[in-house]
Each structure stands twice: as C-alpha cells, then as structure tokens.
Amino acid sequence: MKCPHCDKEIDITLSVGAVTRSSRFVRPTMEQVKEYAESIKFPLDAARFMDYYDTNGWKVGKHAMKDWQAAVRTWFARYKENNPQHVAEVVMSKTEQEKNRKARENLRKGLFT
Description:
Layout: H1 30-39, H2 46-55, E1 59-60, E2 63-64, H3 68-82, H4 84-91, H5 94-109
Antiparallel strand pairs: 1-2
C-alpha cells in the first residue's frame, strides 16, 4: 500500500496477539490423542476415539468438530461418571497404591496390621 502523504510503499501487516488459531479443524494424530490423554491421566483407548470420529466425519452431533482436546475431556468426564473407583485409583499416589495393595494381601492372608 502507498502512503497517502509521500507515495512510499508501506507494509501494513497487522498482528493480533502472538498466537493465531486456524479456523479450520486439523485432525489429530493417534500419538497426539494418546499424549493428551496421558497428560490428563485418562486411560483412553486412542484407537477407539480415532475410529469413532473418523467414522462420523469428525462431527459433534451435526456440527463439525472444533476442538478435539475438548472431546477427549468430555469422554474423560463420562468415564469418571461410570468408573469412579478406577479414577480414584489413578489419582492415588504410587505410595498409597502400594500401601493399599499390601493391606489387601494381609487381609487375604488373615494378617491384620
């Protein structure tokens, strides 16, 4: 574009923030889905997740998917509702899990501590 005062060529590229988001959905890789699920401690079957959305064209209802991470979180919320015991075990620290395992073993053996 030319400056209206001096006829010099100027660049008027505008930048809105440091991060730009594409308005077009990009299908995640299976590895991305696995890594994200692990990062939120969700034992997701990534192949099943990918197959489900591949089958329906990456749609949520009638609308095109915008955020696959949100879909993973939704699956996790539903999983927690249906498997509260498993989720509690996943959240437990390794020390707590080991302590509980030893206590169960002692109960089976008839030993009480």
